[in-house]
Amino acid sequence: MAIIAPSILSADFGYLNQDIDLINNSEAGWFHIDIMDGVFVPNISFGFPILEAVNKKAQKIKDTHLMIVNPDRYIETFHKLGTNYLTVHYEACTHLHRTIQAIKLTGMKAGVALNPHTNIHLLEDVITDLDLVLIMSVNPGFGGQKFIENTYKKIANTKDLILQKESKALIQVDGGINLDNAKKLTEVGADVLVAGSTVFNAKDPMQMIHDLKQKAES
């Protein structure tokens, strides 16, 4: 079963409460929350007050994607703010195994994200410790980018590694996901599809979430 995770980054912050209610009442399984620091990626998103507001109203799994340097500093803070899955970037962690263990010690699920140029085999030694692998299908930092076609092969390679190592990690894909590629992504092994502008720029976002899920599971 495919999980649709609408990205709050693409919501209308003037109507954030309404957009959170929309996700709560939709067929989406998760809330996807992007945290950017303007250093690791050339963009700044929202900080802890917004995350706190989302946590108060969100009734589904909160999946937080950290696009920041030194993520270890904030692990406990994100735990206190109600995060269920905390994902850090491979490229931002000098001591990745230690970071993963620190996340899991709080009771959160641990994820690692890979930029488009980063090879999945670099996770070979930690894949059994992970609950989630996030494959970036665009370069991180901004919504609305074009999907990178090599992503299909990368997902298939990730699935092979997970099966080979008997890991229980889910595969998440983020960037450029729409009705044209949702089915192919799940066919090659994706479990969780993050959709931002595709959902929130739609005329009927709730219907779009339904359509994405139908496509992904067809």
From TrEMBL:
One of its GO terms (biological process) is pentose-phosphate shunt. InterPro entries: Aldolase_TIM (IPR013785), Ribul_P_3_epim (IPR026019), Ribul_P_3_epim-like (IPR000056), RibuloseP-bd_barrel (IPR011060). The active site is at residues 34, 174. One of its GO terms (molecular function) is D-ribulose-phosphate 3-epimerase activity. Pathway: Carbohydrate degradation. Coiled coil: none annotated. It catalyses: D-ribulose 5-phosphate = D-xylulose 5-phosphate. It holds the Pfam family Ribul_P_3_epim. One of its GO terms (cellular component) is cytoplasm. Catalyzes the reversible epimerization of D-ribulose 5-phosphate to D-xylulose 5-phosphate. This is Ribulose-phosphate 3-epimerase. The lineage of its organism: Bacteria, Pseudomonadati, Bacteroidota, Flavobacteriia, Flavobacteriales.
